[in-house]
Design brief:
CATH topology of chain A: TIM Barrel
Order of helices and strands of chain B: EEEEHHHE
Oligomer: heterodimer
Function (chain A): Catalyzes the cross-linking of a glutamate residue and a tyrosine residue in the PqqA protein as part of the biosynthesis of pyrroloquinoline quinone (PQQ).
GO molecular function, one term (chain A): 4 iron, 4 sulfur cluster binding
Number of helices of chain A: 14
Radius of gyration of chain B: 13 Å
CATH superfamily of chain A: Aldolase class I
Helix content of chain B: 25-40%
Radius of gyration of chain A: 20 Å
Keywords (chain A): 4Fe-4S, Iron, Iron-sulfur, Metal-binding, Oxidoreductase, PQQ biosynthesis, S-adenosyl-L-methionine
Number of domains of chain A: 1
Largest interface: A-B, 21 and 17 residues
Enzyme class (chain A): oxidoreductase
CATH superfamily of chain B: Coenzyme PQQ synthesis protein D (PqqD)
Number of domains of chain B: 1
EC number (chain A): 1.21.98.4
CATH architecture of chain B: Orthogonal Bundle
Strand content of chain B: 15-25%
CATH topology of chain B: Arc Repressor Mutant, subunit A
Number of strands of chain A: 9
Chain lengths: 361, 91
């Protein structure tokens, strides 16, 4: 097999705690309790080891990373080690002084997520009053000299308002806006019948995004992430298993993709007991889907197998029962009809018999 | 945003960081959730986009450091591309 490349991306999921309860959350249904979280010292060890391996991009994520009181310590160390560090946050737990402190410590970028463009829908989806605070924090981030990066997670319940979301981004003078359609993992999968958009919604949002992209060229960058349920080929999940991306969960499990915890037959290791160098290069989990030996048909003989690596193994497992099957979002998958069925079910069942499930805090 | 000419002063755009990566053995440009691996020429030019020197000085410095003449066209072409990518600004 070809030489294993070094990891370039470390995702530090420092906690699963979150003051918000978004029903599209991709965290697992079984959240890691606070008492099982890594301590500061172990996180510092993780940062050192991953940087030595080659990771240059670092994401502080969660849950809500601001819940961790030692985040400032980790941010400061990350800068000293030469990481480009990204804070991926709801903005709740932030104030202008904390933004300034992060800036002094060398945090490179803050991405604030919004649930919608107006207070009532935003706060309904977040399960708490947060909209006004998010606006204030977005302005504080911009005022302190950071590029402003906004993320709107879009799905059936808010997708009709993409134009208003982009208007809000313009008003806030955002530099980058991500319109990310919900990925159906964790809580989002449990709520799929409520969240899966229709084809008309997806195409309409795409048209709006395109027209704003043209209108705002050179001023604001807009990324529209099309939901894989409406594509003919799967996404190259985490740019290929064990090739670029390394996540560490709140309890210290090292994960090749942030949903990998759910996969059967995968022996995951903990950074408390093992060095990241060994975990990345030697452990069975990180080698499990490397190369092509694991592939079944139609992936094995597919001429696009080096492009998408068979897609998302977690999705293949959740929808077909076997993570080695092709991701069923691929039109070549013998299970592709499951995607069509999910779309039909969610569209027919407009008032679902199951209530919308808000995630636990 | 001002335009490119010999007296404009390029610098990295806000949120961009230029650095050497030991493991990759290459210079990279880092930005929110992204990274570009740079070839030697791109790295040599971006290293001098420091918000201090103008384009004319930048070209002269490169020609001196690398003992090559006639770099102007290549450098200008790269700067146009770098601005289009959003890597640099003039100010």
């Amino acid at each position: 097999m070809a030489k294993i490349p070094p990891p370039l991306w470390l995702l530090a999921e420092v906690t699963h705690s979150c003051p918000l309860q978004c029903p599209y959350c991709s965290n697992p249904l079984e959240l890691v309790p606070k008492k099982d979280e890594l301590d500061t010292e172990t996180w510092l060890k993780v940062l050192h080891q991953a940087r030595k391996l080659g990771a240059a991009q670092l994401g502080f994520s969660g849950g809500e990373p601001l819940v961790r009181k030692d985040l400032e310590v980790l941010v400061g160390e990350a800068r000293k080690l030469g990481y480009y560090s990204n804070l991926i946050t709801s903005g709740v737990g932030m104030d202008a002084a904390r933004v300034e402190k992060f800036r002094e410590l060398g945090l490179d970028h803050i991405q604030i997520s919004f649930q919608a463009d107006d207070a009532s829908l935003n706060d309904y989806l977040a399960g708490t009053k947060a909209f006004q605070h998010k606006l204030d924090m977005a302005r504080a981030v911009k005022a302190s000299g950071y590029p402003m990066v906004l993320c709107f997670v879009i799905h059936r319940q808010n997708m009709h308002r993409v134009a208003q979301m982009l208007d809000l981004a313009v008003e806030l003078q955002a530099d980058y806006v991500e319109l990310a359609t919900t990925q159906f993992e964790g809580w989002a999968l449990a709520n799929r019948d409520h969240l899966l958009p229709s084809l008309e919604q997806v195409r309409a949002a795409e048209r709006v995004a395109k027209s704003y992209q043209e209108k705002l060229k050179g001023q604001m960058r807009i990324y529209y992430v099309v939901p894989d349920y409406y594509e003919q080929r799967p996404k190259a999940c985490v740019a290929g298993w064990g090739r670029v991306f390394l996540a560490v969960a709140p309890d210290g499990l090292a994960l090749p993709c942030h949903s990998a915890r759910s996969l059967p037959g995968l022996e995951l290791h903990n950074v408390r007991e093992h060095d990241l160098d060994w975990i990345w290069y030697e452990s069975s989990a990180f080698n499990y889907f490397r190369g092509e030996a694991w592939m079944k048909e139609p992936c094995r003989s597919c001429d696009e197998r080096e492009k998408d690596f068979g897609g998302c193994h977690c999705q293949a497992f959740k929808l077909t029962g076997d993570p080695k099957n092709a991701d069923p979002t691929c039109a070549k998958s013998p299970h592709h009809h499951l995607i069509g069925q999910a779309i039909d079910t969610s569209q027919l069942n407009l008032i679902s018999s199951k209530p919308l499930l808000f995630r636990k805090r | 945003m001002s335009e490119l000419n010999l007296t404009s002063v390029p610098k990295l755009a806000a949120g961009y960081r230029f650095q050497w990566e030991e493991v990759q053995q290459t210079h990279v440009l880092l930005y929110p959730e992204g990274m570009v691996q740079l070839n030697d020429t791109a790295a040599a030019v971006l290293a001098l986009c420091d918000g201090q020197r103008n384009v004319q000085t930048l070209i002269a410095d490169l020609e001196r450091d690398y003992e090559i003449e006639g770099l102007q066209e290549d450098v200008l072409q790269f700067l146009v591309q770098a601005q289009a990518e959003g890597w640099i600004r003039y100010g």
